[in-house]
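Researcher: Next entry in the queue.
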Amino acid sequence: MDIRQFNMRQTIIVAILVLYFGKYLTKRIKFLQNFNIPDAVSGGVLASLIFWFCYAVFQFQVEFNLDIRNALLIIFFTTIGLSSRLKTLLQGGKPLLILLVTAVFYLFVQNLTGIGIASLMGLDLPIGLISGSVSLSGGLGTVIAWSPIFKDTYGITNASEIGIASATLGLVLGGIVGGPVAKLLIVRNQLKTDDQDQQLTIGIKHGQKNVKIDYSTMLNSFLVISFAIGLGIELNYIVSAIGLRLPDFVTCLLAGIFLTNTIPFIFKRFPWPANTPSLALISDVSLGLFLAMSLMSLQLWTLAGMGGTIAVLLLVQFIISTLYTIFVVFPVMGRNYNAAVISAGYSGLTLGATPTAIANMTAVTERFGASPQAFIIVPLVGAFFIDVANAFVIQKFLNFIG
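Model: Structure for this entry, 402 residues:
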């Protein structure tokens, strides 16, 4: 096996080319355009398929240096925090609680589905959990954290491989299904945004004219992002000292929320970048590069070795997730435009990861209009609350089947 390792610079170059390729595909293929498939998803999935072909046919494997990917994730979530006005936060209080309860309930549904299908197919019941909320709602980080327990305590020797394969396929499916679900809900219910003139949280509306992005606004955005990240990292040191472990991007998100709701009222003459096209563009680019790197680096050949039974299990999870989003999440969130955008994000959340959810919502809002509430609720639920709840739910199910 010939392994080619790309350094950070080469990885960034490939990621940019993947984004360009995704934009080209979206422009040329009506399906991708009509169903709001994110550029990073279409380009990244095709790139990973090409690398799989190289692996299978030419015994040539590409490995990327993904160190910068974490920095892009932190920048992205910081921009989300900086775009979060107190008014929107207060309006999102009740919907946030509703989505959180709905999402936690689905963790039980997801694991019951996994255990049920595993039982029907004659698999060990813990495998149903691995291909349930461990890998799908949890993602690769949760898989890495829980795999040793499944291996050492429950004898699932290939727990890590099953989890990584499930999370990989889930990431792809989550990025594909969100756009079509949102379009179905928006078109069927003839929904329109209540914030027609609102600047997008991420990206710029299709066809928008007179967009002002200049040297000064970009410089202000970079300055404020840098301060927010510094505050977020310091905040993480504090919460770590009291025994609470949070990812850096969560505390940077919180720091952004704090700064954007205090500094503009104290220093009124400072041109705060919240809700400006410059900040939205930085957010869009950092998210796009993050997702492109994540998807193009997927080792899809691991899916070929996971067996047809796991593929069937994941197909059932995909169907249940989609039905739950359409018939439960959308109604309880209010059956309005915000609910449709949240549903696009939730599809990515239950199958892939929070950045996938945000990419889904970005693709939808760039076409149909802004939804500030969705970009507050979904990141808070997906980036923080669900991970905490998922740990308790996984342990409860392990005790139940133990």
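Model: The mean pLDDT is 87.
Researcher: Noted, moving on.
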